[in-house]
Write a structure and sequence with these properties.
This protein is an alpha/beta fold and about 600 residues long. About 40% of the residues lie in helices and about 15% in strands. The longest helix is centred in the N-terminal third of the chain and has 31 residues, at about 20-50.
Length: about 600
Amino acid sequence: MTDARVSRVSLKSRVAAALPPAWREPARRAYRATDVLGRRAIHRARTAAEALPLPRPPAPMVDGIPIRLLQAKRRDLERHRHFGRRDLDKLAEMLDRADGVVSVAEAYRRREHWPERFVAMRHDMDHDVENAIKFARWEAEHGWKSTYYVLHTDWYWNPSGSGQPSAFVLRALDEIASLGHEIGIHNNAIAAALRYGGDPASILDRDLAALRRHGFEIVGTAAHGDPLARSVGFANYEIFAECLDPHGRPAGRTLESADPVSGRRSAVTLRPMPMRDFGLEYEAYFIGHTRYLSEAEGRWNQGYDELAAAFLQEGGFLQILTHPAHWGLSDEVIRPIPAMTPARSDTGRMDPERGDPTAEPFPILVRGDCCSRRAILMNKDLFGGNPRMVRDEKSRSDFFLDHLTVGSPEEDDIGRYMDIDRLTGSHRDYALTQRTRDTLNVEAARLIVFDSYADTNFKAWRHREHGWKLWVYPRYLRDRRQFEREFERVDYLTLDEAVEVNTKLIERYRAQVGDVPVLYLQQPTAYYRKLDHRDEFGRLGVEIQKRVPNVFVGDIDESLLEPEDLNSSGPGQTLHFSGPTYRRMIDVALEQGLGEWLSKIPATSRG
């Protein structure tokens, strides 16, 4: 016991002994109370002191980047290596046979007089500076020149948010430039203005100036495909007057965005300016190439072997884009994405429509119509060769939610109201199919597929007593008056209603099969005039994507559609398209990250 403790106890005993007996217990209680209050006061004082903004020792840094951040990024990036030594060797084989492999700036300046087989090599650095250096060294060893576009909004630019590039990224760019490569800027100015505030032109001008002050001659830019660009609907190159939106959206439109966490809303009005005002000569997407090969999230945008063969045989001006983060350039573990690459049989490449029935089954839950069904059946090689679908067609999404509370009509119910015997072929099947709910019983799937057709196309009626809904062919109703006495019209779903019910249905399916990705195929309606008045439903997939994580939307420009079965829906009309059309739609979703997701999911069981 310490001297202070002994003194305090002795003093307490002497005081107690001097008090009259009747006062000793009240005094003891008072002492305990003041002692407790004192301890609480000390605790509050310590807590308040800890909350004071006192200076703390600085975090260990490497060239302006906190070491802990750098280590965390390295660990994360190593999990995204999808291309390995074999892929590098195949790339080198093609480049070795080209007549020139140059930077994008040089290719642009020579665009009118290129040799027979001409390659403009480009790398969007995105999130991985250190792997970009390794790629630049590999190219230099082969004598090739290329362009590296630095992303001025990523973690390595400056974690402090000061706007000035860190010594970490400048040191990396110095080495890349010393190897003879071009440095460009990966333009993300419009997305940055929406996300953080400010003017896109001022942001781009500021960051270009910072690079130029360091000594880099920046003459070119490549627009970054920020997720915000996809969800809001813009391309970062729309900051330039020379780069028109390929979808024909107005150049001076106002973009609006809402932060999904804070709810903060922001708006930016586009005011395109000439590239020369920024001291720039070109935008990489507009350099005049005749062939384009790019990889995103572990997949090439087209068959690599086929393109390489065509290029070497026919020549042309080829632009190649890679993202160094996806390439294993040392002794890292390579994680290819086998499920979504074309499988091969003993006799060669698999027929997309025949597939390989001996391959491991690829279970898919399909809540969609002909768009979903045809996309899978006409491209079986994208799903391991043997996709196994459980599908429900010709029902709106709200019908499935109704089933969970009030049930669904039976086949006898449909036959009671519609004259099924007068319906023939697919019309009879469609009328009966609307009651199936097989997908609500699925327990294992690697993928969920939706499309927008039923929610866009079907009106509905609700049974006044039972509460479930159905759609009908009005001219095949047995008794129209009796039907209207038993049912009330609920008409089409609005876009907002469709987003709400799709969101809930996806959550329900994921509760059954686990956290698997959703491929949302936007049913093309350009050749189906009946749905012209429902044009807003072209945004359905994107609106769902804003609310639900890991939804990947397959939607392509109308100019890329290849109709099949033309006139099947009336003169000059159809809802059916060629296999390559659906393949392009799936490719869009794969580039958004669907391929990487599928590679993580067990093949035959949930979780």
